[in-house]
Design goal:
This protein is of the alpha/beta class. It has helices spanning 15-24, 47-57, 89-107, 132-149, 170-173, 185-197, and strands spanning 6-10, 29-34, 40-41, 60-65, 110-119, 157-163, 204-207.
């Protein structure tokens, strides 16, 4: 049986964040964080904000991210421009490097044997129209978790969770995922439980 853990959950107010908190809060202490709501404010695109949030949270056994934004644009509309002007810039700066920097900072704040769980997504292996940014970023998050796992110090583990579209988000994302079977957000919460309360590292947990 797992000991009671102190978990910093980024993106706690979102659909997936609420499901993760509902899964874990009966057994653990959840510190919610977000850009606009939560116990702690954090902007994952700003390394200084990440460091400040981790310091404010105090001793932690786990850091979990349910955050990350990307653009959905047709490839025909994406031009070869500088990163700051590119449709790909949001996903690279936010969902990818935001979570990478979160993991790198968490590595130095977590208690021995702690864990980091990042958010990827099924588009890393199931492409859809308008989804090239999400596919690229999700695959990169998964690859980062796999590679970072072999170098994490002090027994710290790192994994990624890669869900398909969730039922609660079909109003917003349903048009992009015609023919896909959505899953309830609670299943994503259970995947985070597996990452945080289990022993595996360098894994990507598919929720499909």
């Amino acid at each position: 049986m797992s000991a009671r853990l102190r978990i910093l959950l980024i993106g706690a107010s979102g659909v997936l964040g609420r499901a993760i908190a509902a899964e874990l809060s009966p057994r653990h202490d959840i510190i919610s964080a977000g850009s606009k709501t939560g116990d702690i404010r954090i902007d994952i695109t700003d390394p200084a904000s990440i460091e400040a949030a981790l310091k404010s949270a105090g001793p932690l056994d786990a850091v979990a991210s349910a955050a990350g934004a990307v653009n959905f644009h047709p490839l025909s509309a994406i031009k070869p421009v500088a990163l700051a002007e590119s449709s790909y810039g949001l996903g690279l700066a936010n969902k990818l490097m935001g979570q990478v920097n979160l993991a790198l900072a968490a590595r130095d704040h977590l208690n021995d044997g702690g864990s980091i769980t990042l958010m990827a997504g099924v588009l890393s292996r199931t492409p859809i129209a308008y989804g090239s940014s999400a596919s690229m970023v999700n695959a990169a998050v998964e690859a980062f978790a796999m590679a970072a796992a072999i170098e994490m110090p002090r027994g710290i583990r790192i994994n990624a969770v890669s869900p398909t579209v969730v039922e609660e988000s079909m109003t917003d994302f349903g048009p992009f995922f015609r023919g896909h079977d959505p899953v309830p957000a609670l299943r994503v919460g259970r995947a985070f439980s597996r990452s945080i309360e289990g022993l595996e590292t360098g894994k990507t947990y598919l929720v499909v």
